[in-house]
Amino acid sequence: MVLKLDEQKLAEDNQDKSHEVGNDRGGGARTISRLNFLRVGILGSFGLLTWRLWDLQKPLADNQNLAGNTQAPQADTRYISYKAPRGIIFDRNSKKLVTNQATFSVTLTANYLPDPAKGKKEEQADLAKQRQAVYDNLARFLGMNYYIVLIPEQVNGLKNKQGVYTNPERNAILNELEKITSISANDWDKTLLKLAADKRDQDPFVVNEKEPIPVEQFDHFLYLRSKFRTDGFLFQSEAELKMLRASSLVPAYQPVEVWPSLSRQDAMLLTEKRLDYPGVDIQINYIRQYEEPKLYAHLLGYTGHFTSQDSLAKANKTAQNDPNSVADPNDPSSKINVYDLDDKIGVTGLEAWLEDFLRGRKGANEVQVDSTGHILRTVHTGKPAQPGNSVSLTIDSELQAFVADVLGKQLFSTDEKVINKQAKVREGAAVVMDVNTGEVLALVGFPSYDNNLYNKPRKEWTPQEIADMDDQDKAIQYNRAVSARYAPGSCFKLITAAAALNEKVINVNTTFNCTHLINVPTSTKPTPSNPFKCWGQHGPQNILDAIKNSCDIFFYNVSVSKGTGQTSGENRYYDANTNEQHLFNGMGIDALNGYMELFNLGQKTGVELPSEYTGLLPGPQTTNPKWSIGDTMTTSIGQGDVEVTPLQLCMVTACFANGGKLFRPQLVREVKDSTGKVVAPFEPKLIRDVTKDAIKWPTPDPKDPNRRLVLTEFRLEPSVMQVIRQGMLAVTSASGTAANSLYGKIGKLQVAGKTGTAEYGEIIGKDKDGNDARATRAWFTAFAPYDKPKYAVTALIASGGIGAEGSTFAVPIVHDILQKLFPEETKQATK
Length: 831
Known about the structure:
This protein has 831 residues and is an alpha+beta fold. The chain is 30% helix and 22% strand. The strands form nine sheets. Strands 3, 4, 8, 9, 14, 24 and 25 form a seven-stranded mixed β-sheet that branches. The protein has a five-stranded antiparallel β-sheet with strand order 16-15-31-30-29, with helices on both faces. Strands 1-2-12-13 form a four-stranded antiparallel β-sheet, with no helix packed on it. A hairpin with a 5-residue loop joins strand 21 (572-575) and strand 22. Helix 5 (170-181) packs across helix 6 (185-197), helix 15 (397-411) packs antiparallel against helix 25 (806-821) and helix 17 runs antiparallel to helix 23.
């Protein structure tokens, strides 16, 4: 915001200060008084202002000369570009999720600033003062902060034969820094030495980056400009610092953005003062406006400036291969780079993934300039800037808001029994997917953040905004639905069950007796042994019972193979009550890995988001060559090293729902150009049909005494899928683990699902039986309707505490979401 400073007083103050500084870095700020401005402006400025306000519709930003040199061009032809607005993003019902807010940015062009190097010797001091005046007057006009900047190489000086830096002012500078910052001179000495050792002593180092000096305190620190003769000790405004940093990256004829956003009124005020500010220009800029930032921050992401010349060059190289950026060879816009240093590019989320579609194409004119770089005439007017393409998502904004609301209410419950108060943040996620297409209708992760914050400089953030972004170690920018990895708990038993049936180590009638506790020996003798518990005592269990009751003992039995393990004997366990021995006769971890691979676990889903986590597929061939029986048992129930994302689990659930079709989760429906023409349709993509498309995975050859690995094909029989579906339906029955929140409380809607509870972290207290207990992840994943499935829904409370079970903590979330999705079918439901 423009500071309303008294202009006459500003001129007087600057004249009073001008005698205090005598070197090229000094000089007080000089301005033209309003009276003098009017005398000059009445004659010529009105016409200039009129032209400039018209020209703001296609602002100038020099890109490069004909040869693409990085030095000031020698030719008399330049290409002047003007920006294109980014594309708009809509939800599936054409509601705008992000738009562009037109604003004005302030730029400085080094070629047009007063330059001591271009003047005669007797003029150089005055030109240096004039240049400093531009920076300081602009800083006062805009309210810029000031910084103390070091060029370490110059502050240190040269080394003598003894390896000691010889700059006679170095110690005095260190002492001055101690006085200003309360950091010891000795620490500053170490900092400068480290910068030199790291080969970073030629780069500007900002002393007070996190605590800039407000412009109102300018007078108090002005003495710093004349205190030392060392050129590497600087007191600079924000604009001057940006120009210093850009000096090695941007050609002197190319404008550098020094202030990102001005209102139209302030832009007009600054335009009036162009005679006072040589080198200053106003350009049209576009700021992304996120309509509901915390609801879509993880999905949409945000845009940001390039951090280095290397990142800029890499982006331009990538963009050269994009057919959307190729223009008519006769059009000047084909002669310019896609990006300049002051442009913005998608950094995270869909803004990054869809960058090629969203960025648009700049327009450009070919102009003739004189030897000083001033424009003489336009040689060739190019095509206007082409706005970025609009994007329609699969997301239903109304559903997205509802899911966020019910997830948030459960996650931020004040019930101490189910909240892990030791967790750094309260985290959770929920996903809703169309089981027949893979379209994602809602994708929510907690905690979230305000991506509109990145539209303004950090110095304009409130203390609370800074605390929200920093104190949680950037945890709020982490997309829990696609980038976080969690043990799936008992939800994983769906895959274990399907694998065991398909490998024919069991059938639908096979039972195992659950007596709550078994002991697995560590040698050929019954003892010593390791205890493995089930959460309950279920008695005889077949596969439908085991899914319905989530019986751990059943899945231990079907997962551990018959062969010899670390005990040098047959793999076996002992009933803790009767001490009766039982031999394992399951499929083994290699086969289980094969079915995990079949369901695409351990790989990215391919959803249109960057930074997606692959998940973890644990086993002797992937993570641990010293694999044990215990590792197989914990993996079989979704604990130990196995990890998935909420999106992956929802994708697997959708596959069981539709009978075997594993669809890639889809967030983008279509991309349209400015005329409304679809330029990139996004169709459902089938990864594989797990009942038809086999995958190959290495497993030990049972006929080989050395058990060398051979490639084995894995796919599921359709009948197996149906059994798993029946088991999931039983979970929501009167005696299933999800009964409390679903049975009789969801109207006529038939729901199939699986609860899951997975321990994590350190011991944080005692459970109801007085045993040491850890915090838990609470899961529930489901699909509905059972007979003709439409949607899969997965919910996770990832920062649950002791007693935060999937059945009591995650199932209610899915219950409410299903009521929203099926209002007619559930209208008779009562809670």
